[in-house]
Amino acid sequence: DNARLYPAFLAEAERLLVPGGRLVLLSHEIKLLRRLLPQTRGLSVRRGLRVWHGGHRPGIWLLQKQ
Length: 66
What we know:
Elements: H1 2-16, E1 22-27, H2 30-36, E2 43-50, E3 59-65
Antiparallel strand pairs: 1-3, 2-3
């Protein structure tokens, strides 16, 4: 269940990244991530965009630990 997995993933990424560390996240869970990313305290979205891939349109985000 991605609604449980993604918050845990983002919390672990925040824990593991050093200050200024970056993470690229590619996912089809657009609505879920649009809801979750503003709630992350230690990670900021440096850039986000939608990409085309084989008829799919996932999102890609560059996150950085503050």
